[in-house]
Design goal:
- The protein is mostly helical.
- The radius of gyration is 24 Å and the shape is flat.
- Helix content is 73%, strand content 0%.
- The protein has 5 helices and no strands.
C-alpha cells in the first residue's frame, strides 16, 4: 500500500514531486532566455541595472511564471500516476517532458484555453440551432 493507503507507488510519489520541480526548472530556463541579451557585455559601460520598479515587476513575473510551471508539472505528473512502467528510464523521460512543458507553460495554457473556448462555442451554436428548429414558424403551426 502506498502513501496513506491511497495505493500510490514510490514511482507515483516521485512523479508528483519531480514533475513540478522539473517544470519550475523549465520555467526558470525560459525566464533566463527571455531576459538575457544574446550578446554578452564586452565592457563595463554595456552593463546596466534596471530601476527598482522594473526589478520588482520582473521578480513578480518570474515568480508567477515559475508557479504556473509548477502547476503544469503537477498536472503532468497526475496524468501519469498509475499509468507508467515503474522503471527509472520511464520516470526520467516524464520528468524531462515536464521540463519542456515548464519552458512553454503559458503557451500550453493559452492553447488549452482556446481549445476549450472553441468547443464551448461549437456546443452553444449546436444548441442554438437545435432550439431554433422548434421555434418560429413551427411553433405557430403547432399551436
Amino acid at each position: 500500500m502506498g502513501l496513506f493507503g491511497l495505493g500510490l507507488s514510490n514511482y507515483d510519489i516521485a512523479l508528483l514531486i519531480f514533475c513540478p520541480i522539473g517544470a519550475v526548472i523549465g520555467s526558470f530556463a525560459f525566464a533566463i532566455v527571455e531576459t538575457i541579451a544574446h550578446k554578452p557585455p564586452t565592457k563595463e559601460d554595456d552593463f546596466t541595472v534596471a530601476n527598482e520598479h522594473v526589478r520588482n515587476a520582473r521578480g513578480i513575473w518570474l515568480g508567477l511564471r515559475m508557479i504556473l510551471g509548477g502547476i503544469l508539472g503537477l498536472v503532468l505528473g497526475l496524468y501519469f500516476v498509475g499509468a507508467i512502467q515503474e522503471t527509472v528510464a520511464t520516470l526520467t523521460k516524464i520528468v524531462a517532458l515536464s521540463i519542456f512543458a515548464g519552458y512553454s507553460a503559458p503557451n500550453i495554457w493559452l492553447a488549452q484555453e482556446e481549445a476549450i473556448a472553441n468547443k464551448v462555442a461549437e456546443l452553444l451554436k449546436k444548441e442554438t440551432v437545435g432550439s431554433s428548429d422548434i421555434t418560429g414558424d413551427q411553433a405557430v403551426k403547432n399551436s
